[in-house]
Amino acid sequence: MRMDYALLSIAHQQSTSDQQDAVLSAAVTVSAPASILPEQAANWAYPEQSMSPGEFTLSLVNGIMGRLYLSGHLDRLSEDQFALVAEAVELHKERRHAIS
Predict the structure, then answer these.
(1) Exposed/middle/buried for 91, CB within 10 Å: 0-12, 13-18, 19+?
(2) CB 43 within 8 A of CB 14
(3) CB neighbours of 41 closer than 8 A, spacing ≥ 6?
(4) At CB < 8 A and 24+ separation, what contacts does 59-63 make?
(5) Residues 6+ apart with CB under 8 A from 28
(6) In a domain, 28, yes or no
(7) Can you give the pLDDT of all 100 residues of the chain as single tens digits?
(8) Is residue 75 part of a domain?
């Protein structure tokens, strides 16, 4: 992770990675709290239409573990996939107080 804590003393968040692979991103997600406060960790979620259900869910879980940042072609998701994204966003809103 490329990070400068001097910047975090004046900024609210820091992107933890630009990794789009959900499996590889999981390692970044679980190790980020060793060097950055969870409430400052901007964790990206890149759900893609072509992902398996497990990868799709993992991409959302990775984002939920810090400040959830959604990216990718959300407009191309199926109705079921989009509903899962909406559910993840609601879960994050309900639980984000526990992260900080």
Answers:
(1) middle
(2) no
(3) 13, 14, 16, 32, 33, 65, 66, 67
(4) 59/22, 59/25, 60/84, 60/85, 60/88, 61/88, 62/22, 62/25, 62/26, 62/28, 62/29, 63/88, 63/92
(5) 1, 16, 17, 19, 43, 62
(6) yes
(7) 567 778 788 888 888 888 889 999 899 888 888 888 888 889 999 999 999 999 999 999 999 988 999 999 999 999 999 999 999 999 999 998 887 6
(8) yes
Q: Is residue 9 part of a domain?
A: no
- The pLDDT, as a whole number, for residue 79 is 98
Q: What are phi and psi of 76, to 5 degrees?
A: -95, 0
Q: Which token pair is 69? A: 């940042």
CA distance 22 to 5: 26
**1 within some domain:** no
Q: What is the pLDDT of residue 73?
A: 95
Give the predicted TM-score (pTM) of the model.
0.84
Which residue shows structure tokens 């692979």?
A: 21
What is the β-pairing status of strands 14-15 and 67-70? unpaired
